[in-house]
Amino acid sequence: SQQGEEDPQALSIQEGENATMNCSYKTSINNLQWYRQNSGRGLVHLILIRSNEREKHSGRLRVTLDTSKKSSSLLITASRAADTASYFCATIPDGNTPLVFGKGTRLSVIA
Amino acid sequence: DTAVSQTPKYLVTQMGNDKSIKCEQNLGHDTMYWYKQDSKKFLKIMFSYNNKELIINETVPNRFSPKSPDKAHLNLHINSLELGDSAVYFCASSQADSGYTFGSGTRLTVV
């Protein structure tokens, strides 16, 4: 069953702007992960944030996690045309269950 | 070297046929998965294997049968293919509490 809901479903910005995508989930989690999928390709793991962490950075990516609100956000700073892709949040609910994905946000960065 | 490789990349077949998709990972991961991505890009877990043992079997028709000859391989056999089986199938692997590594996908089209 679906766990995460990304918001917005689609986002279009100019190169150089920041892009923010949000994710909400339903149950308690062990960790939350963000993935990127370019058109016609597989998913690439971007960042993992554990339930006891509040913020994590990786290059131009910043992820926050608010377990009290069951929500996370992914910020991509100084976006580039190459960032155009679908972005998915996914959670590991407590226990041994595999990653459960949200519906994704389609990001278009216009040069 | 490709970390998770799956073959074939494209598969076009007629209804009623039986087909297999192969997956291999060279990362030494203990756990492997099959996900199905539908036309709306929603990713759903199908099966999860840990060290050759089936640990998750979501509600999937029994026409789908995974087989793991060793922990580096997880194949998916589909009997009596139906139009609704058309989708992109992704293999993935993971180790402990880490991000998943996905293959590039197999686009299955049933005609």
State the shape of chain A.
globular
Given helix and strand content, the structural type of chain B is mainly beta
Number of helices of chain A: 0
Seen as an oligomer or otherwise, the chain set is heterodimer
The helix tally of chain B amounts to 0
By secondary-structure content and strand pairing, the structural class of chain A works out as mainly beta
Q: Which parts of chain A are unreliable, with pLDDT below 50 for 5 consecutive residues or more?
A: none
**SSE ordering of chain B:** EEEEEEEEEEE
How far the N terminus sits from the C terminus of chain B, by CA atoms, comes to: 34 Å
Fraction in helix of chain B: under 10%
Tell me, rounded to a whole number, the average pLDDT of chain B.
93
SSE string of chain A, helix = H, strand = E? EEEEEEEEEEE
Number of strands of chain A: 11
Calculate Rg of chain A over CA atoms: 13 Å
Radius of gyration of chain B: 13 Å
Beta-strand percentage of chain A? Answer: over 45%
Strand content of chain B: over 45%
Descriptive report:
The complex is a heterodimer of chains A (111) and B (111). Chain A is mainly β and 111 residues long. Chain A has no helices and 11 strands. Chain A is 0% helix and 58% strand. The model of chain A has no long low-confidence stretch (mean pLDDT 92). Chain B is mainly β. Chain B starts with a strand and ends with a strand. The model of chain B has no long low-confidence stretch (mean pLDDT 93). Chain A binds chain B through residues 2, 30-31, 33, 35, 37, 41-45, 48, 50, 86, 88, 92, 96-101, 103-104, and chain B through 4, 31, 33, 35, 40-45, 48, 55-56, 90, 92, 97-105.
